[in-house]
């Protein structure tokens, strides 16, 4: 009863749908550089995104999350920001952004921006002023004196302040001759770390959030949040303490995993910053009448991730866990996949919101990582499980990694290998090749003579236009599942997962008084017929509402739960008859309108190899 009262109080400020949209949002990640080029320079841009918003609306997307669009020297394609309040020229102007935002609003699509708080570009005004010790910028970054060491001949030489190693290998400290001190960079040299122990930095970053919230964005995805803080030298005799050695065999002092990151990762202070940002976003719920989402990315083990959900007294976040990305492979059985789903649902604190992510701009695409036979299955699972679903651009048509030769490679992770063979195992270019709109030149992405990354060579057969024209396609399946995502059962129903065998996975979403939803996946290379009479609450009559590309059963086919024929590598979504068990309005448990802060996890392991 108390829960219902809280709901009513909140609902008086804004309508329930404006407050709850995030809990079951379908968020579409756009990598602007590769989505759509509107001005023929070979690089995607904001106006290109605006042109394609109607497509995203027709697909059923609730919100778009844009990878960084800010002014940047592009050493890391926008994750190195020179000015948090300006648009990168090649992506357009602030007027283009405002136009995008207005168009999106008129189509009912919310816009979420990437926020990169762990570091700026070394070519930002902030960093230049800090290097010159200009107030109040002097302590905006983590500056420290070097240590003196003495070599075998008694000569004193300078060493970095501590043994800390960059995520991209080698010392995390870089000497700045102008200031006569070292600065910390947990990523590349061009990405100096901000100093969150400075109150000015804390305020400056909040002002950045306010700048975009005032424009009307619906929230942020926060990058690398678990690296915001480093140990406080005041607690260690005025110096930055060395991190202990991991003693993992085969690693050297330049390798990130050589150390255990007790002083540079997951410090307790981090959580308070996340909760503070949450409070700031909450202030906008009242003034703008919609919930503001914040998705934050971190790589940490489960117990630490869960802390991003918040505490008893502070609202937190939905930690992004990439278990679909990290823990499911092309060899995973139905048992394995069920285990991954159940584990997250088990550890998630009660009343909080889950999230499912199949791909992003840093990971090999689903079709490449798990095999094209599993594209429909993985898309469907992310869309029918409870909580937020995130689709990386192109996954809805089953794009696979493009081939990018060493000559064409631009990703710093690939380039840093200096190796025309080894680059392929770490480069993130293949999952960033341009979106395949149609069969025309450059897949309809651009009219330029050449594009910033080559278009994947399968675009003549694998493109959106062809999939819309085809009778069956990944896109039709995806869109049909999304349409059914709005059903009461998928929005609010109880979840049950069953692995009937190593190759058969069944997911039910059931809500009393409503039609049930049933997802069936056959991972095997042969057809199987399944009998679901053991699922007592599931009504017997079923209708196919979405049929994957490999399925013989077509949409609208009706059958009973005792005999369901499922083709090889087929994913099917069924709607059942009305689920019994009482009055729909009173029977199910309404969850609190909790705050969404999605903490994305991020794997950097590829780079250590
Ligand atoms: C390191 O040595 C230089 C001279 O070689 C000296 O000026 C400096 O103060 C020393 N720094 C520390 C931290 O001892
Ligand atoms: C120490 O001096 C010896 C003899 O001059 C020289 O060979 C060696 O390279 C020096 N070591 C270092 C670290 O400079
Ligand atoms: C910034 O860092 C990059 C290396 O990542 C370097 O090439 C560039 O010269 C630096 N820029 C400035 C202004 O120091
Ligand atoms: C961080 O917080 C946890 C729980 O609040 C506590 O157990 C732990 O000792 C803290 N760690 C440090 C380094 O203060
Ligand atoms: C958490 O957020 C909800 C909804 O925005 C709000 O009603 C509640 O008071 C917040 N709780 C805390 C502890 O701030
Ligand atoms: C996600 O959570 C699982 C536990 O469910 C954990 O084993 C895994 O390391 C987490 N993944 C990441 C990337 O944090
Ligand atoms: C899948 O299994 C095959 C054959 O056993 C093996 O070669 C491959 O490395 C496995 N792939 C993954 C991602 O585990
Ligand atoms: C790569 O570029 C070099 C130098 O421009 C050229 O000689 C070589 O043929 C190119 N290789 C490929 C595979 O295009
Ligand atoms: C399925 O039924 C719907 C309406 O019930 C209809 O609009 C649609 O064309 C049918 N689809 C097929 C493939 O028969
Ligand atoms: C978690 C993480 O690494 N996030 C970003 C932090 O900065 C690096 C370097 O720019 C980016 O590549 C990451 O995406």
Distance between the termini: 54 Å
Strand order of the largest sheet: 13-24-12-11-5-2-1-15-14
CATH architecture annotation name of one domain: Alpha-Beta Barrel
Biggest β-sheet description: 9 strands, parallel
Q: What is the subunit organization of this protein? A: single chain
Strand segment tally: 24
CATH top-level class of one domain: Alpha Beta
Unreliable residue stretches: 1-13, 582-609
Radius of gyration in whole Å, from Cα? 25 Å
Q: Which percent bin holds the helix content? A: 25-40%
* Percent range for β-strand residues: 15-25%
- SS field, number of helical segments: 18
Backbone shape: globular
Ligand species? 2-acetamido-2-deoxy-beta-D-glucopyranose
Query: What is the name of the CATH topology of one domain?
Result: TIM Barrel
Catalytic activity: Hydrolysis of terminal, non-reducing (1->4)-linked alpha-D-glucose residues with release of alpha-D-glucose
Keywords: Signal
GO biological process, one term: carbohydrate metabolic process
EC number: 3.2.1.20
């Amino acid at each position: 009863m108390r829960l219902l009262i809280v709901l009513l109080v909140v609902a008086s400020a804004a309508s329930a749908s404006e407050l709850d949209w995030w809990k079951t949002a379908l968020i579409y990640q756009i990598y602007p550089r590769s989505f759509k080029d509107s001005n023929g320079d070979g690089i995607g841009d904001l106006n290109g995104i605006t042109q394609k918003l109607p497509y995203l609306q027709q697909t059923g997307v609730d919100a778009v999350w844009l990878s960084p669009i800010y002014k940047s020297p592009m050493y890391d394609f926008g994750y190195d920001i020179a000015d948090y309040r300006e648009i990168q020229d090649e992506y357009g102007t602030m007027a283009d952004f405002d136009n995008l935002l207005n168009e999106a609003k008129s189509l009912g699509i919310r816009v979420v921006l990437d926020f990169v708080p762990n570091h700026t570009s070394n070519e930002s005004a902030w960093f230049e002023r800090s290097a010159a010790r200009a107030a109040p910028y002097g302590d905006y970054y983590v500056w420290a004196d070097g240590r003196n060491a003495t070599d075998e001949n008694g000569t004193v030489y300078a060493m970095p302040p501590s043994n800390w190693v960059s995520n991209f290998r080698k010392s995390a400290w870089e000497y700045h001759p102008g200031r006569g001190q070292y600065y910390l960079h947990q990523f590349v040299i061009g990405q100096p770390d901000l100093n969150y122990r400075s109150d000015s930095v804390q305020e400056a970053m909040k002002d950045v959030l306010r700048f975009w919230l005032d424009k009307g964005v619906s929230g942020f995805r926060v990058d690398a949040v678990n690296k915001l803080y480093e140990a406080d030298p005041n607690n260690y005799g005025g110096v930055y303490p060395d991190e202990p050695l991991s003693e993992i065999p085969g690693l050297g002092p330049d390798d990130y995993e050589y150390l255990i990151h007790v002083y540079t990762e997951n410090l307790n202070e981090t959580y308070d910053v996340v909760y503070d940002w949450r409070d700031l976003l909450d202030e906008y719920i009242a003034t703008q009448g919609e919930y503001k989402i914040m998705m934050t990315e971190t790589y940490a083990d489960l117990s630490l991730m869960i802390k991003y959900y918040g505490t008893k007294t502070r609202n937190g976040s939905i930690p992004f866990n990439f278990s679909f990305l990290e823990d499911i492979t092309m060899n995973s059985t139905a048992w394995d996949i069920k285990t991954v789903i159940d584990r997250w649902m088990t550890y998630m604190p009660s009343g909080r919101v889950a999230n499912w992510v199949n791909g992003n701009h840093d990971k090999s695409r689903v079709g490449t990582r798990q095999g094209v036979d599993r594209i429909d299955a993985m898309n469907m699972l992310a869309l029918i499980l409870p909580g937020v679903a995130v689709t990386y651009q192109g996954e809805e048509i089953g794009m696979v990694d493009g081939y990018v030769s060493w000559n064409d490679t631009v990703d710093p992770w690939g380039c840093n290998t200096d190796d025309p063979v080894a680059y392929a195992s770490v480069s993130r270019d293949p999952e960033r090749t341009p979106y395949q709109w149609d069969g025309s030149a450059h897949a309809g992405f651009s009219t330029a003579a050449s594009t910033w990354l080559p278009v994947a060579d399968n675009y003549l057969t694998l493109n959106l236009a062809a999939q819309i024209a085809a009778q069956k396609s990944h896109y039709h399946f995806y869109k049909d599942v999304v349409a059914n995502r709005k059903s009461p059962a998928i929005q609010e129903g109880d979840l049950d997962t069953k692995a009937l065998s190593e190759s058969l996975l069944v997911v039910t979403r059931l809500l009393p008084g409503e039609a049930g939803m049933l997802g069936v996946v056959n991972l095997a290379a042969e057809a199987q017929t399944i009998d679901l009479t053991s699922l007592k609450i599931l009504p017997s009559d079923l209708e196919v509402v979405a049929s994957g590309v490999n399925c013989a059963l077509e949409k609208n086919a009706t059958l009973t739960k005792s005999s369901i024929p499922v083709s090889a590598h087929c994913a099917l979504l069924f709607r059942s008859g009305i689920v019994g068990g009482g009055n729909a309005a009173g029977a199910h448990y309404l969850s609190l309108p909790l705050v969404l802060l999605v903490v994305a996890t991020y794997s950097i392991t590829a780079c250590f190899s």
